[in-house]
Amino acid sequence: MTDIPILFSAPMVRAMLDGRKTQTRRLLGSSPDIFYVDGEPAPVTVVHVDGERLPRIAIGRVLTKHELRFAVGMRLWVREAWRLPATCDEYSPVRFVAGLAERGCHGPSGFVRFEADARNAWGEPYGLEVPMGRLRASMHLPRSLTRLTLVVTDVRVQRLQDISEADAIAEGLTRLPATGRWVVNRGDQYFGGASFDPRVTYAELWDSINGPGSWASNPWVVAISFAVHRCNIDAMEAAHG
Question: pTM for the whole thing?
Fold first, then answer.
């Protein structure tokens, strides 16, 4: 089964590190095509068997033609924002990894600081005296330097607004002990970003990522549940033979 990368923002990485995030939703793609039966349009819906990568056809219904990128058992390596020491600012990710390999070093490096929590792959504060360099986009983090691996435990196709309260919470929300309201980040309550309904808080999170009105459009999404492993994907593979 193919391993693939997956991008997460700093707040979502923190939620995974805290054990609060075990689900993510990604856009399925374009809307399903309309099938015609005896010249009449068939009802528009999506037929999908939970946990299977390929949907199935039911007569008189519409099927998404997309093969899902995700399947139960698949491993995802998390790409997140990161930095190298300022002395390495001119290095590309490829050059940096190659330099480590020349020195016999493979896998995560103590020189990498992750932006989400200002720590390295082992959860240690950055202890070098050399100042940190420029911020690097998550999409440029090489597989060998990642620190989080997700193993997919469930895959569902659904409308975005079909999310349950429990699923919204599993997207990484946190509950304020003083009021019982739900937020993405502590402090959001001071800017109107808190609600007693976790689905409302999640809707605001979705719009902040995908643009205003994206929740209201209620697109088809792939809902992925996963187990978080705090290790590099290749180190995980080596540990299990």
Answer: 0.84
